[in-house]
Amino acid sequence: MIERDVDRLIVSDLDGTLLGDDKALQRFTGWRERHRDTVALAFASGRFYGSVVQSMQQTALPEPDAIVGGVGTEIHDYPSGQEIPGWHEEIGQNWDAERVRDIFSSHSEMELQPEKWHSDYKVSYFLEDADREQLDALKDELKEHGIESEVIYSSNRDLDFLPARANKGSAAAYLAKHWGIPAERVIASGDSGNDHTLMEQGFRGIVVANAQPELKKITGPHIYHAQNGYAAGVLEGIEYWWNTDESD
Ligand code: GLC
Ligand code: MG
Predict the structure, then answer these.
(1) Could you identify the atom of ligand 1 that is nearest to the CA of residue 113?
(2) d(CA 189, CA 217)
(3) pTM above threshold 0.85
(4) What domains, with CATH codes, occur in the chain?
(5) Which ligand neighbours the alpha carbon of 210 most closely?
């Protein structure tokens, strides 16, 4: 629950976006403290809630108001840790994580990620150099078994299978709606494939300079490509969007 009168939301990825340049992260955290009264902050990570909280203890990351974890499969309020209600009912139909693992057990080219990175809503593998055709074929294979999935490929290696409609972007849009913040008042930043959907919600997007090619290639009037990397790129992008925002 946010008890401040916020009218903007910053949603940012962590690894390779806010995390990666400690000095810049400290500047971001200072900025966040100065704007805390009016700006809500959410992290959107491929990692789960507990792992994100651990990073907050180990780095200069500021305290957010919510954590979108597991590539958008969970949304937790922070610091209460409570799940934002309703999200799992929105996703999760025609989905069964156990069956996804069974179906893909014969795919020796796909290496299962460590168990702690899996949940009932997320099944992840390592698969290098997959192309669109291969990813589509995997999605089709699940569909033949009655499973509707969202397939997310990042960094030319990380392959996530999630329930249809579950991704960072849809989860962030759900959160913004929950807090009553319109899409054009949301700024989203990222560096890799699992951030792609954050750039498709009508938010103002920031792609940091160190981004992976799959995110760098996105263009459009709502995408800002920062000259700086990591948290410095996020700050640069926020400044850009605040200066060009016509609604102020
Ligand atoms: C994080 C998760 C991993 C996922 C990757 C890309 O690294 O831990 O499971 O594959 O993000 O979404
Ligand atoms: Mg990242």
Answers:
(1) 9
(2) 15
(3) yes
(4) 8-84+167-247 (3.40.50.1000), 93-163 (3.90.1070.10)
(5) 2
